[in-house]
Amino acid sequence: GAQDVTREGKPAAGLDLEGIAPDGKGGFWLASEGRTDKDVPHALLRVDAAGAIVEEIAFPEAVLAGETRYGAEGVAQVGDLIWIALQREWKDDPAGTAKLLAYDPAKGDWAGYARYPLDPAPEGGWVGLSEIAASGGDVLFLERDNLIGEAARIKRITRVPASALVPTPFGAAAPPLPKETLRDLIPDLRATGGYVVDKVEGLTVDATGAVFVVTDNDGVDDSSGETMFLPLGKLNAM
Questions:
Q1: Bridge-partner residues for 133, per DSSP?
Q2: DSSP per-residue letters across 53-92
Q3: Residue 141: which of 152, 133, 151 has the closest Cα?
Q4: pLDDT, tens only, 127-162
Q5: At 88, which CATH number?
Q6: Could you read off the pLDDT of 26-49 as tens digits, one per residue?
Q7: What is the mean pLDDT of residues 186-210?
Q8: 91: domain range?
Q9: Nearest-5° angle of CA 190, CA 193, CA 197?
C-alpha cells in the first residue's frame, strides 16, 4: 500500500518526489524536484522504513545558481555515492547535456557532478533524463523526448559504465560520459496497439538483473490516462 513521507510526524509538504532508491539500512533515498518560484526546494532526502524524514539535504548553492524548473528525476546509489539525475540542462550547462549530482553520505557533503550527453532533440520537442538505476557494473538511464505517437523518436534505456561515473568538482569542466543505447523502448510502447506515450519515467533492476519500466500518466492531465508497465527481462546492448 501507499506510504506517507512525514516530517515531524505529519505528512511532509513542499516535496515533488521523483526518484527513490534503497539506502541499504532499511530506508530509502528520495529525490525531490524543486521549483524555487513555488517555494519547493530542490533536495535529496533519506527516510526510514516508515517514511519519516531522517535527513534533508539541500542542493549546493553553486548548482542552484543555474536553476531551471527541470530538476531531479531519479536517484541511485553507485558504490559509496548517491547520484541524482537532473532532467535537462540548467543555465550553466552546455546545450544538450544534463547534470548528475553526487552526494557522499560518509562525509555528509556533495562530492561533485558528472555530465550526461543527451541526444539531439527531434523537431518540436526536447530530450531529457527520467531515471537513473544501478545495475551491477553499469548505471542505467531513461532518456526520452516529450513527444507522443508518430512524432516520438527517443524513448530508450542507455547505460554508462559505473567506473566512468566519477564526480568532477563544482566549478570545473566535466567530460561527457560515455553512453550506449541498451534498448529502444518505442517498439515496446507500440506493442499493445496504442500510441507511443510521452512519459517513460520509472526504471528499476531486480536482484536477478531483470529490468522493469513504467510510464507516468500524469493523472490524465493532457494524457489518455494509460499507464504501461514493461517487464523487459535481462538486457544486452543493441
A1: 140
A2: EEEEEEPPHHHHTT--S--EEEEEEETTEEEEEESS--TT
A3: 133
A4: 999 999 999 999 999 999 999 999 999 999 999 999
A5: 2.110.10
A6: 999 999 999 988 889 999 999 999
A7: 93
A8: 69-233
A9: 50
Identify whether 36 is part of a domain.
Answer: no
Taking residue 40's Cβ as centre, other Cβ atoms within 10 Å add up to 16
- Give per-residue burial for 136-174: e unless 16+ CB within 10 Å, then b: eebbbbbbbbbbbeeebbbbbbbbbebeebebeebeeeb
199 has a pLDDT exceeding 70: yes
Cell readout for 229 is: 508497465
The gap between the terminal CA atoms of the chain, to the nearest Å, is 37
**Helix, coil or strand: residue 100:** strand
**Other C-beta atoms lying within 10 Å of the C-beta of residue 117:** 16
Question: What's phi and psi for 220, nearest 5 deg?
Answer: 60, 20
Other Cβ atoms closer than 10 A to 217: 17
Higher-scoring residue by pLDDT: 226, 18: 18
Report the number of distinct structural domains present in the chain. 1
Asked if the structure places residue 53 within a domain, the reply is no
- The amino acid sitting at 39 is D
Q: Is the model more confident about 173 or about 1?
A: 173
